[in-house]
From TrEMBL:
Function per UniProt: This subunit might be involved in maturation of a crRNA intermediate to its mature form.
Upper classification of the organism: Bacteria, Bacillati, Bacillota, Bacilli, Lactobacillales
Protein name (database record): CRISPR system Cms protein Csm5
Organism of origin: Ligilactobacillus animalis
Domain CRISPR type III-associated protein: 9-179
Entry keyword set: Antiviral defense, RNA-binding
Annotated family: Belongs to the CRISPR-associated Csm5 family.
Length: 333
């Protein structure tokens, strides 16, 4: 038995799904309140056609080692009197919250996942991982989950029978840049980290198609909204309630889900099974202290959806819970 569902996801905070690549300061232009990410091949061909005498200097510029005194792409173009800015690519509006630096210059920026045409999207595997976390905590709990084929048994993996497609495309005007902020509940303070990411803006809606095989997989998907509410209560009881500054915690709206990079350790694990003494090769400065840090980022205190603006946070520091979303599921007949 096969069933099809449409999952509609709405972001309540910036969400970042990285593709493993970064933009260096030689690969974007900061001008007129926008970060412009040109196609570097287009930029190079423009120089070859219109400014052949500058090509060698551009090649040398790209080959310069990265150091504190490195020249940025914006500076190179201004210095060489190159006024063209039609190099394809896309722009992201500066918010003033993507960095604490007055001039707005960033160093490396972690890229959002994009398809072969440069259109951003959320991979189905990322959403499936978040859904699996909910099911492991609220449905399976202490039960042993069968993974693949073992002891010459017939292959069976319940999560293999829940197939999540990639999201529809996300337009570049729904992208923003955000900085990583950590809140220590032991010290009751926030700390900025020099990590910057492309992210989807709050109040962005995307859709996914989910296909299930068999009655058990269909039942799990149809119970996801209920399990999500239960899981968020568990997450709040075991983690969020430890945070002294409650203004940093966003309200729970319907079915909550944490998605993507920077959302924190506790949003991605089986909270009953985790052993803080055996969570992996964390040593020295990388060792998690207590229950770790609460993962945040900054954005406007109001987020737009269509022509309306919504207040999603309760603090004056413009801090959001990184990766926080809500979702709904509808069966397709």
């Amino acid at each position: 038995m096969r069933n099809k569902y449409i999952l509609t996801l709405m972001t309540l905070a910036p969400v970042s799904i990285g593709n493993g690549n970064t933009y260096s300061s030689k690969e974007y232009i900061l001008e007129d309140g926008y970060y412009y990410f040109p196609e570097m091949s287009k930029l190079y061909s423009t120089l070859c056609n219109k400014y052949p005498e500058k090509v060698k200097r551009f090649e040398n510029f790209l080959g310069e080692p990265n150091n504190k005194k490195k020249t940025r792409l914006t500076e190179f173009l201004v210095k060489e009197n190159i006024v063209e800015r039609d190099f394809n690519g896309y722009k992201i509006k500066a918010t003033g919250y993507e960095t604490d630096r007055r001039n707005g210059n960033l160093n490396e920026i972690k890229q959002f996942t994009k398809d072969a045409y440069g259109v951003a999207y959320i991979p189905g595997s990322s959403l499936k991982g978040a859904l699996r976390t909910v099911l492991e905590n609220e449905h399976f709990k202490s039960k042993t989950i069968i993974w693949g084929a073992k002891n010459n048994r017939e292959f069976f993996d319940i999560f293999h029978n829940i197939r999540v497609g990639d999201s529809d495309g996300i337009s570049s005007d729904r992208l923003t840049l955000v900085q990583k902020w950590d809140y220590s509940y032991q010290k009751n303070c926030v700390k900025k980290l020099m990590v910057h990411r492309e992210a989807i803006k709050p109040m962005t809606t995307v859709k996914f198609e989910i296909d299930t095989i068999g009655s058990e997989a269909a039942e799990l998907v149809e119970l996801l909204e209920l399990y999500s509410k239960q899981h968020q209560k568990r997450y709040r009881d075991k983690y969020l309630n430890l945070i002294p500054d409650k203004s940093l915690i966003q309200k729970d709206l319907r079915t909550t889900l944490y998605l993507g990079a920077g959302s924190g350790f506790w949003s991605k694990v089986d909270m009953e099974r985790v052993n803080l003494d055996k969570i992996g090769p964390r040593r020295g400065k990388m060792k998690m202290k207590g229950r770790g840090a609460f993962k945040l980022t900054k954005y406007y205190n109001k987020a737009s959806h269509g022509e309306k603006e919504y207040g999603l946070i309760n603090n004056r520091q413009n801090l959001y819970e990184m990766g926080k979303c809500i979702f709904s599921i509808e069966k397709v007949e």
